[in-house]
């Protein structure tokens, strides 16, 4: 069986229209990948042996007659938790085509909302993180919060994915089936639109495009432009961003040469946020180093954890009353040649029919203000609230 499914050239919205719940979807404005059914599942703790096991599984698939096998899926934030990767039976790829914006989903009622933690508790956690940083225990700490929502109507992951891809086509739109750990757990789908490239490898060419330092966008064009300019001039946000670029450069250096890190970040936009961003490029030292090897060397970056990592992890564990799971992990693919693309798993939600969990986080540094960081997480929730047709006041 040839593993590459032909794509019709006349498709108005290539592959997105073919997605069904349980598939794996990953795509940007430059191309899309849709994977279906499972040849082999790779469920092992995220550790130093994971990339080697993936390579072995890909080789076994090819030897079994599957041309151009690819591993797809997502990895969690915490090391030691199980990966959520598999080698699919069929994979279709396409160049992305221009598509008309999808209408906003019909508004859904809400039966229940649980905030983890409550907003005032989150702000208090930020204040404690700032105190720890000022005391010299860390340089940056990323704190997240979650919303558990019970909508009045069932949620179709395919509709949410379509909205995200249409309204933010330059993001990494993704949908991942979250495999239940036991037979009593309900099936879940992680759906999102990440603006952040963790790592791309094409032959010897390596790219990472981290984001850190953010401000909500405004519907007023003049105010929106002013906010972008204020972000570009913000010493606090540049400080937050520098921890990320320095950490990524240090992690890539043992594996790469000709490493280029621009002297200053640029400002990029999503549908709801402005971000400071730096496009880091490099050349691979050894062709045996896969995209997954590199992504694991980077993960978790200071953009989603903090710096130093151990100190930031400790504060996160003490502050967040929920398990991040796949949130702030990575999602993407890797083929047998080592090429692949991995995005940071942010701007996302776990969907289970009538239960939805949303996530949002903010990077805390010495000059952070608890109220501002709380507002930033509220703004980041908007991407998924809009896609779900839920009230933006949650």
From TrEMBL:
<dbReference type="Pfam" id="PF00425">
    <property type="entry name" value="Chorismate_bind"/>
</dbReference>
<protein>
    <recommendedName>
        <fullName>isochorismate synthase</fullName>
        <ecNumber>5.4.4.2</ecNumber>
    </recommendedName>
</protein>
<comment type="similarity">
    <text>Belongs to the isochorismate synthase family.</text>
</comment>
<dbReference type="InterPro" id="IPR005801">
    <property type="entry name" value="ADC_synthase"/>
</dbReference>
<feature type="domain" description="Chorismate-utilising enzyme C-terminal">
    <location>
        <begin position="119"/>
        <end position="380"/>
    </location>
</feature>
<feature type="region of interest" description="Disordered">
    <location>
        <begin position="209"/>
        <end position="242"/>
    </location>
</feature>
<dbReference type="InterPro" id="IPR004561">
    <property type="entry name" value="IsoChor_synthase"/>
</dbReference>
<dbReference type="InterPro" id="IPR015890">
    <property type="entry name" value="Chorismate_C"/>
</dbReference>
<keyword id="KW-0413">Isomerase</keyword>
């Amino acid at each position: 069986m040839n593993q590459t499914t032909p794509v019709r050239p006349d498709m108005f919205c290539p592959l997105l229209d073919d997605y069904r719940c349980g598939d794996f979807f990953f795509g940007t404005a430059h191309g899309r990948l849709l994977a279906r059914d499972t040849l082999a599942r790779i469920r092992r703790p995220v550790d130093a042996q994971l990339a080697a096991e993936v390579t072995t599984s890909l080789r076994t698939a090819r030897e079994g007659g599957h041309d151009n096998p690819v591993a797809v899926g997502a990895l969690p934030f915490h090391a030691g938790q199980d990966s959520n990767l598999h080698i699919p039976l069929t994979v279709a790829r396409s160049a992305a085509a221009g598509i008309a914006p999808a209408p906003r989903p019909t508004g859904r009622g809400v039966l229940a909302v649980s905030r983890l933690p409550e907003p005032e508790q989150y702000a208090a956690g930020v204040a404690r993180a700032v105190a720890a940083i000022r005391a010299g225990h860390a340089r940056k700490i990323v704190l997240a919060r979650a919303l558990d929502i019970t909508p009045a109507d069932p949620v179709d992951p395919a509709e949410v994915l379509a909205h995200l891809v249409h309204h933010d086509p330059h993001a990494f739109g993704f949908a991942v089936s979250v495999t239940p750990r036991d037979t009593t757990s309900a099936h879940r789908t992680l759906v999102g639109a990440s603006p952040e490239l963790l790592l791309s490898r094409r032959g010897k060419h390596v790219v990472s495009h981290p984001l850190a330092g953010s401000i909500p966008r405004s519907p007023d064009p003049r105010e929106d432009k002013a906010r972008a300019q204020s972000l570009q001039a913000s010493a606090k946000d540049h400080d937050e961003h520098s921890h990320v670029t320095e950490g990524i450069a240090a992690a890539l250096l043992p594996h790469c040469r000709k490493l280029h890190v621009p002297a200053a970040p640029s400002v990029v936009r999503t549908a709801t946020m402005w971000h400071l961003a730096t496009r880091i490029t490099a050349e691979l030292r050894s062709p045996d180093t896969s995209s997954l090897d590199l992504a694991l060397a980077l993960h978790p970056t200071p953009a989603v954890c903090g710096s130093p990592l151990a100190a930031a992890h400790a504060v996160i564990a003490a502050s967040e009353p929920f398990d991040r799971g796949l949130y702030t992990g990575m999602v993407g693919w890797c083929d047998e040649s080592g090429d692949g693309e991995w995005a940071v798993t942010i701007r996302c939600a776990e969907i289970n029919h009538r239960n939805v969990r949303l996530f949002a986080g903010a990077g805390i540094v010495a000059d952070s203000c608890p109220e501002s960081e709380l507002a930033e997480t509220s703004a980041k929730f908007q991407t998924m609230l809009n896609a779900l047709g839920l009230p933006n006041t949650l």
